[in-house]
Amino acid sequence: MKIDRRDFLKLAGIGSAVFASSLGGLDHLTNRALAAENDFFFVQLSDTHWGFAGPAVNPDSMGTLKKAVEAVNNLKIQPDFIMFTGDLTHVTDDDQDRRKRLSGFRDIIKELKVKKVRFMPGEHDAGLDEGKAFKEFFEKTHYAFAHKGVHFIVLDNVSDPGSTLGEEQLQWLGADLKKQKKDSRIVVFTHRPLFDLYPDWDWYTRDGAKAIEMLMPYSNVTVFYGHIHQEHHHNTGHIAHYAAKGLMFPLPAPGSVPVKNPIPWDANQPYKGLGFRSVEAKVKKAQYAISEFSVKGEKL
Amino acid sequence: MKALKSRLLIYGVVATFIAIAIGGYLIAAENEQVIQITAKRFEYSPKEITVKKGVPVVLQFTSLDRLHGFNCPGLGIRMDIRPGKVNTLRFTPDKVGTFPFHCDNFCGTGHEGMKGTIIVTE
User: Is residue A55 part of a domain?
Assistant: First the structure.
């Protein structure tokens, strides 16, 4: 499976129209039909942080998610499904406020035309109550599903406040992977990076190496995650890991500044560093295994 | 009489071992740098710690509210800071420098700002 990434800065187009540079990807996708019947694409949105307030960072904190929903709805071809990779809401210490924010988020994304929408928590949603409130709204925090020949695995590395997957989930992952062929097309969604991106900023998963080790025997694995509010690509062996932009505020590049703080809003370039992503999955061309037989039916 | 002598000998050997052990502990304890740190939402106190390279360090953490974490990737040390007990971490710094540490158990709205620094001097 080849996965093409198309990152859209559609929000910029809706705002002050400063950033339209990435819309070429959108045109590319929408001006033609998907090449093969089983080709498809999905949209990844991440780190919407509904409930965040900080005018210096995002003066449109109440409107950004709505704009993203509108932008996705305006795609000429709608994705097969939409995946939210965590931090749907911004953290609050109050349990009831957390539920209000989850409810507010859900009300906004109900406007999406695509009804096949999947969710996973970030630590802001689930880190203080081990995912209790999140599950009330979106049920499971880790699960697997299949779509057009691709096996998708959603891993939860945030409900444990210590950012571990935990032995129970790792065993579940192992059992799920056992059902797959070594060359199965596998896509993994997580919130935090599974690898040690930058531990000083807590950009890692404490036992992520165990999950990567379990995935390593499979030849066709790609990981999409959020958490770091910027695009990032890294390979662990043959496994590619792609981080997505956020939809509330961008963060600096790993280790680029002494202190990790949100990048302030640039009035000259509103929504800079924010956006969402589509991922187009192309199925392999048909391959034929040819065997020759004699007239007696013996395999040659 | 012979039995009494044997018993006294055994007592003597045991007493000697105890004395050596206590002495060794005291010497080690004198050389250790013991630092008490409290953790609460969303700060450590003290948040800047200075220690000497090559001298054993004992960090004694106490949480005043909930589960916190201590993670100093630069020195390769971490531990959970559980409330209701003293959480002790021993290490011997083997390099000079300034090493940031942070809470790595998500603890709330100010979690991102819960951090500090260990300064290791010669």
Answer: yes
